[in-house]
Amino acid sequence: MAITAAQVKELREITGAGMMDCKKALTECDGDIQKSIDWLREKGISKAAKKADRIAAEGLSKVIVDGNKACLVEINSETDFVAKNDQFLDLLNTTTETLLNAGVTTLEEANKLSMKGKTVEECFVDATATIGEKITLRRFVVLTKNDSDIFGSYIHMGGKISACVVLKDSTNAEVAKDMAMQVASMSPSYVSRAHMPAEIVEHERSIQEEIMKNDESLKGKPEKVLQGIVEGRVSKSLQEMSLVDQIFFKDQDKKVGQVLKEANTEVVEFVRYAVGEGIEKREENFAEEVAKIGA
């Protein structure tokens, strides 16, 4: 199949690999982006495992806590300038407060809620008309906790990243805040390895096995030794995805799990919103540059 400039551009942004390598990977993998990412990793060209860097949309996120409920919201705009507009900020605040106790779980339900005498959807249409940019409610979530638990929340860069965690059976506000900051800064995917789906672990193991096959320095080593190397690499790779296995940002000699154990608590759940994550960037004229590497 023909590989397009847009595909090469996307893979390059995700992996940081060169254009020729990206085009070759896409050609080998019939244009499948995820398989191409794995192909580049297996060849030692890229270590990218996630698409978190594909952050393009502007806007802000927010988290508020009230009693046993917490609400996180993300609202997008077309430019960062508009996200600083007073009307935009008022819309963000009002929407978050409305959703906190509304008892809805989907965007469809949220858009039908009453807010300032109109529906939420109508408020966003009005904001789009008066601000002059498309303003959208992208996502939201409401977390709940038990009376004995505690929320920790953190908003970074004025709302570019928002995080909230629930600590079990704790009143330690400092640790709760630290955990929210850890989640915001280090972007874990799961609380622990035990929370990871088996297919995630197996996928990483298959990647590491392929990397090992391409490592000339490991040729001829006993199978038992090779398996140990694979498991060690899998563990190290998955460490970044597991909150409790991450290095604690305040103390490089401790892991998050140790900090939680010393505080006699554990993380029940967490949510992290980074504005625009996963949204495609606007297309640029990239075709001419890609064409230079050959058809």
Automatic annotation (TrEMBL):
Cite the residue spans of the region called Involved in Mg(2+) ion dislocation from EF-Tu.
Answer: 79-82
Translation elongation factor EFTs/EF1B dimerisation domain location, by residue?
A: 70-277
User: Is Transferase there in the keyword field?
Assistant: no
The record's keywords, sorted A to Z, are: Cytoplasm, Elongation factor, Protein biosynthesis
Its Gene Ontology molecular function terms? Answer: translation elongation factor activity
Q: Where in the cell is it found?
A: Cytoplasm
Q: What InterPro entries does this protein's entry cite?
A: EF-Ts_dimer_sf, Transl_elong_EFTs/EF1B, Transl_elong_EFTs/EF1B_dimer, Transl_elong_Ts_CS, UBA-like_sf
One Pfam family name from the record? EF_TS
Q: Which residues form a coiled coil?
A: none
**A GO term from the CC aspect:** cytoplasm
The protein's job, in short, is:
Associates with the EF-Tu.GDP complex and induces the exchange of GDP to GTP. It remains bound to the aminoacyl-tRNA.EF-Tu.GTP complex up to the GTP hydrolysis stage on the ribosome.
PANTHER family, from UniProt? ELONGATION FACTOR TS, ELONGATION FACTOR TS, MITOCHONDRIAL
Family in the record: Belongs to the EF-Ts family.
Name of the protein described by the UniProt record: Elongation factor Ts
* The organism of origin for this protein: Anaerorhabdus furcosa
